[in-house]
Amino acid sequence: MKSEIFYYLPLFPDAHLSIRVNRLLDDLRGVRRSSVVTPDNLVPRQPSVKPETEQLREKLLIWFQQWVNIFQKSHSPEKSFVPFINQLTKQGILKVEDVSSFFFRVCAESSVNSYVKHVGNGDYDYAFQALDAMSRLIVYIIKYHGDASGINNDQAKVHYLTKILSIFVLVLANLHEEQGPAFQQKPFFRFFSSLINDLHVIESQLGTAYFQLLIAIRSVSRTLCAEHV
Question: Which residue pairs, CB below 8 angstroms and at least 24 apart, start in 210-213?
Fold first, then answer.
């Protein structure tokens, strides 16, 4: 199942992330790693982030925070989703492949950071809010996403969800590598469980795509299960 992860590595611009994913999978299998520094396990320090990249990150973070606020305060987030997503599209965030991938990466990192921050402050009531908001955002995007030619909307939905999930998994691998034994699984479990629940709620509206979307989620889940590695 390693190959399934590496297929999506180009979506996540980190030259050394394949090493991190390998380490995550080794840990899941219980493989003990040598503490001796060798050319094979040495991960060079990443260069400083370019100012324009950091500016884009801040811009994308603001957009995601706006969605979290909508999710928290609106009784019907879907009604607010359409104008929100239209603004994202006008800004070019979802039109350009690299920018859209970066957007979902920022969403994932921000959601997990929000969980850690709230739990650290003992504010458990809001710990999962950003993660649930991200799940709902993805489900709405998938619901309204379709093939531009109108030929195979189901395949278009599955492809888009797979792209997003691959980015989320790579964020997981990155945090696992950085945090080691302190890595927290709960926010990732919450995200996937919320995603499955939110998809189930609109099952009738997804039609034949619903089952294929569940298979996509299952494929990612299998990637993270030691017994399937």
Answer: 212/154, 212/155, 212/157, 212/158, 213/142, 213/157, 213/158, 213/161
- The predicted-structure confidence for 50-83, as pLDDT tens digits, reads as follows 666 889 999 999 999 999 999 999 888 999 999 9
Contacts of 112 (CB under 8 A, 6+ apart): 131, 171, 175, 187, 188
Backbone angles phi, psi at 184, to 5 degrees: -110, 120
pLDDT in tens, 178-229: 888 888 899 999 999 999 999 999 999 999 999 999 999 988 877 766 433 4
User: Could you tell me the domains of the chain?
Assistant: 2-41+57-228 (1.25.40.790)
Do the Cβ atoms of 37 and 127 come closer than 8 Å?
A: no
7-18 per-position pLDDT tens digit = 333 344 443 444
Q: What type of residue sits at position 51?
A: P
Cβ–Cβ < 8 Å for 145, 160: yes
**CB distance 62 to 56 below 8 Å:** no
16-49 pLDDT per residue, tens: 444 444 554 454 444 454 444 343 433 333 444 4
Alpha-carbon distance values, 210 to 197, 203, 204, 215 (Å): 12, 6, 8, 9
